[in-house]
């Protein structure tokens, strides 16, 4: 399971005035819903809320205005990427949580567990390295079980679609969650080992690096809490799912070894929690792809000899680096 929960604590980032909301033309039909809050998006800081307005268009469909240009803490794109993978994942997460909480009435007293997240991005509609301007999204949700929800999301900017996703998550009561977690419910992060050089994994600072050297190619040690609020902005009892997704992207970037590597699809599947009390090894290997000139990398997490999650990332050569295949394709 990938957690999408939050136990809000104070943030160390200094307070600043709220940014004005980016707005688009409202949907042709729909009921404007209350303004998104950090609580409903499971963030601590208001600046990290990426949804500015949203509407209910039917029992199963919602529309959103998004703003990626604010003073949020999320990471920039890697050198060859057309989009920030962290902003993509946070957009999927936040819109899904809003639909669950405010749209479907699932209270904040529940804990959310994401089973899978898959998305594709368009390399020729880049948002990285520029102010992308207003964005809109639509979400269609289907209850696939009594406590599970499937959500499909489409995001547009500059007149076209650049992101599509599908994800599945469930929820349990806090009492059930405490029983499920047992002694781990009180677990907290341990100090992170020394990181890989940021440039090796496509990052800028050491606090952004989710991987530590493991002494052999294609293998790393997962760094738990690096102190960066983009990765951990609240107390948790296991490594958050979006930290695992970030670690997978960093591993794929390092494994390919080409700064022109531009991710175009990501598929994350969770199998069990990644705990703080034992090393979690991140391992990458090449897998087949049908996309011409592309490379695909499967990244898995292994803890106590068991696979905790898997992530397949497919990438092409960034249009910003010219035509041709990714190195090694």
Explain what this protein looks like in three dimensions.
The protein is of the alpha+beta class and 329 residues long. The protein has one domain (2-321): Thiol Ester Dehydrase, Chain A, CATH 3.10.129. Helices cover 14% and strands 33% of the residues. It is built from four helices and 14 strands. It has helices at 38-41, 85-103, 174-181, 241-256, and strands at 2-3, 31-32, 51-56, 61-66, 110-121, 135-145, 148-157, 160-173, 211-213, 219-222, 261-270, 280-287, 295-303, 306-317. Strands 1, 2, 3, 4, 5, 6, 7, 8, 9, 10, 11, 12, 13 and 14 form a 14-stranded antiparallel β-sheet that branches. A hairpin with a 2-residue loop joins strand 7 (148-157) and strand 8 (160-173). Helix 2 packs antiparallel against helix 4. The longest helix has 19 residues, at 85-103. The radius of gyration is 19 Å and the shape is globular.
Low-confidence parts: 4-23
Strand tally: 14
What would the principal axes of the Cα set say about the shape? globular
Report the CATH superfamily. Hotdog Thioesterase
Order of helices and strands: EEHEEHEEEEHEEHEEEE
Largest sheet: 14 strands, antiparallel
What Rg do the Cα atoms give?
19 Å
CATH topology-level fold name: Thiol Ester Dehydrase, Chain A
Kindly report how far apart the N and C termini lie.
32 Å
Q: Strand pairing plus helix content: what structural class?
A: alpha+beta
Domain count? 1
Question: How helix-rich are the residues, as a percent range?
Answer: 10-25%
* Arithmetic mean of pLDDT: 88
